[in-house]
Amino acid sequence: MHKVANTSHDPLSFKAVDEGQFIKGLVVHPPSKFAFCLIEKNACSSWSAFGRKVFSGNASTSNSPNYFLDQISQKQAGSSGLEQVFRDPGAIRAVMLRDPLARFASAFMDKCFDRQCGNPYCFARNYHNKQPGQTISMKENIDWILHRDPAKVDGHWRLQSEHCDLNRRLNEYTIVGLMHKDRLNVDAHCIARAAGLQVLNADSEVSPWNNPLRTSHQESTSEEDILKKLYTPGAARAIITHFHKDYELFQIDSAPRWLEKATGEWFEHSSPNCEPPWPNHSRL
């Protein structure tokens, strides 16, 4: 569900963009009166692919993401274009947020088991002096992040409030949504319709939201069941405390109903063959 934020028509300055100090994650397209905040693990790839369609004006444009779209768009728009979109009361400025517990678990499931446990974005592997191919447990991954400043780590693990200047600009957004993996398609179409860009999402053959790996929860374990097995209650509370700035700024529930029923049966899982503990097709 999206909520309409209290918007400011006198945004903070964007002058630094003209000097090459780009705002991480912020994609802006003045002709469409549209801005979107890309945040890793919040359906970032699909939103980036949608952004490519916005820039081309063509729904058939590739569904491949462009992870430099924030810098490209800001350089093209300049501070004047950014200010135009952020001052316009009729513009759509949207961001999709995510429960930090689910987002952290999603990054772990992806980055720490991708490429046969060789993805370099699983920084806990080096922290624990393990070699590519060796499994990192959720316990080890949490131990790594608790020894890092969550405002300064790589974007996949970084506080959401450190993206797009959200810690200073949240009130400048017109749509703030909380992501749920089984509503990606619905939420994306809602935002596209609000921005008058629904034609770019209309064709099920080319919409980035109809990728079954991202939108289908058939044959997969529910998000709550995965989280209950990955976290112990104590570990979940440690992450909530460590990411407290996101919980407080975005008013996200810091006591989810599943937490007290967490079993942590996958918490210390380790496999010599990089075998994850979750069933095939399970994703967050």
Give descriptors for this structure.
alpha/beta, 2 domains, single chain, 37% helix, 5-stranded mixed beta sheet, 284 residues, 5 strands
Let me know the average pLDDT.
91
Low-confidence stretches: 212-219
The helix/strand series, from N terminus to C terminus, equals EEEHHEHHHHHEHHHHH
**What number of structural domains do the residues give?**
2
Question: How large a portion of the residues is in β-strands, by DSSP E?
Answer: 5-15%
Largest sheet: 5 strands, mixed
The total count of strands amounts to: 5
> What structural class should be given to the helix and strand makeup?
alpha/beta
Q: What is the straight-line distance between the termini?
A: 18 Å
Shape: globular
**Strand arrangement across the biggest beta sheet:** 1-5-4-3-2
What is the percent of helical residues?
25-40%
Our count of helices gives: 12
Give Rg in angstroms: 19 Å
